[in-house]
Amino acid sequence: MCMLDGRGQVSGKMQQPLSDFLAPVWAQCWSLNPGSDTLLRAYSQVRVDPKTKRNMLPDQEGVTVSTTVRHLLALGERWHREGANGYLVAGRVEYLADQEIWQRIVNGCNGKHGPSMFGTVQGRAESLLWKRKYFEHEAEVRLILIDRTKPSADVPSIRLLNFDPNETFLTVSVDPRLVSFEAKEREQEIRDAGFAGEVKRDDSYQKVLSLLEMHRDWDQPEFGSP
User: Fold this and answer.
1) What pTM was computed for the model?
2) Could you tell me the mean pLDDT of each successive run of 10 residues in the chain, 226 residues long?
């Protein structure tokens, strides 16, 4: 949503969208946050039926997987050996004030390479690692695929990348809001699908009974208006 405006500053230059200079790109988003209720609810839906205790939204239910940057880059290296037509970059998102993001875009467009900077691998990747502070809770890392070609109407909205989950994922966890018997069913389905890694139980919603050791006498509860 950026327009270059050269009117009154550059002879013969009118308005032009910055998108004309952007190389096609796809991204996969990961989080450095090992446990986030906000992200869980954004990507997995669970509504337990009060009678059957089963999730009424199984088609919208997700799992959590873990990996490392090293594993993701190894996946990219293999993809390149098989004849890739793009560049794969992994980077940590930087959370900035809105004005700072706009200033970086302006600086880039008016820099040595002009708006064409955003068509380079480095410029395109860096600009996709700037995000508003509003999303800082995501602690995001992005795996970015940058195409070698110029933008065109033939660019697909999704790029498929073959990979082996056993080589890429360290752990898999089902939604912790599932009732125990259904969680076990999901875990068995993961095994039956061929995953040999760790199926890790997420206890984030496990109820805990805490026994508080008292070292002094205490009064019984009293209720009423003051």
Assistant:
1) 0.82
2) 82 85 90 92 96 96 95 83 79 96 94 90 94 96 85 77 90 96 97 96 92 94 80
Q: Where are the domains of the chain?
A: 3-199
Q: What CA–CA distance (Å, rounded) separates 151 from 143?
A: 20
Distances (CA, A) of 178 to 40, 51, 52, 149: 12, 14, 12, 45
- 127 burial type by CB count under 10 A (0-12 exposed, 13-18 middle, 19+ buried): middle
Q: Which residue from 20, 25, 65 is spatially nearest to 44, judged by alpha carbons?
A: 65
Concatenated DSSP letters for 187-223? HHHHHHTT--SEE----TT---------SS--PPP--
3-state per-residue secondary structure call for 2-38? CEEECCCCCCCCCEEEHHHHCCCEEEEEEECCCCCHH
